[in-house]
Design goal:
Layout lengths: L10 E6 L9 E2 L6 E2 L2 H17 L8 E10 L13 H11 L11 E11 L3 E8 L2 H15 L4
Parallel strand pairs: 4-5
Antiparallel strand pairs: 1-6, 2-3, 4-6
């Protein structure tokens, strides 16, 4: 499952489906209210269903999330990985995980998203609570490196 060590994550789930992006919001012509397109709503429903079936916990503190988007390996490897935006795939997954797994996606402090070929199609989602001390160390080291006054 990629190069991320599973033992360092609080929660790891595999969602089996063809990866897709979250669609843009649609607007009703009469009322002007926004709504989610059917394809996106169906994908979010499928993600929620699989997560609930696996058993879930709800993260309520700041978290770090790693999402791998896995596409079926084509017969000819010269084909590029599908041109699906990783940011929109992450948005689909994060929105689907609310509120069952993530209380609110505003809790995400660090987000890493990648896409690659695999024998299995879907999303691998890893979540862990943030280590604020670790983040602070990185910020302070970067500030020193750039010569910023603290």
């Amino acid at each position: 499952m990629g190069n991320v060590q599973e033992k360092n994550w609080d929660y790891v789930i595999m969602i089996s489906m063809t990866p897709k992006s979250k669609g843009r919001p649609r607007f009703s012509g009469k009322s002007g209210t926004a709504f989610t397109d059917k394809g996106t709503a169906d994908a979010e429903r499928e993600i929620r269903k699989q997560v609930v079936t696996m058993g879930t916990r709800t993260f309520t503190r700041p978290i770090e999330v790693n999402i791998e988007c896995l596409f079926k390996t084509p017969q000819k490897l010269e084909k590029p990985i599908p041109r699906t935006d990783v940011d929109n795939m992450a948005k689909l997954v994060l929105d689907a995980l609310q509120p069952t797994t993530i209380e609110n996606d505003a809790l995400v402090q660090t987000l890493t998203v990648s896409k690659r070929y695999s024998t299995n199609e879907g999303f691998v989602v890893r979540i862990r609570h943030c280590d604020f001390e670790g983040h602070l160390d990185v910020v302070q080291a970067t500030a020193r490196k750039l010569g910023w006054n603290q």
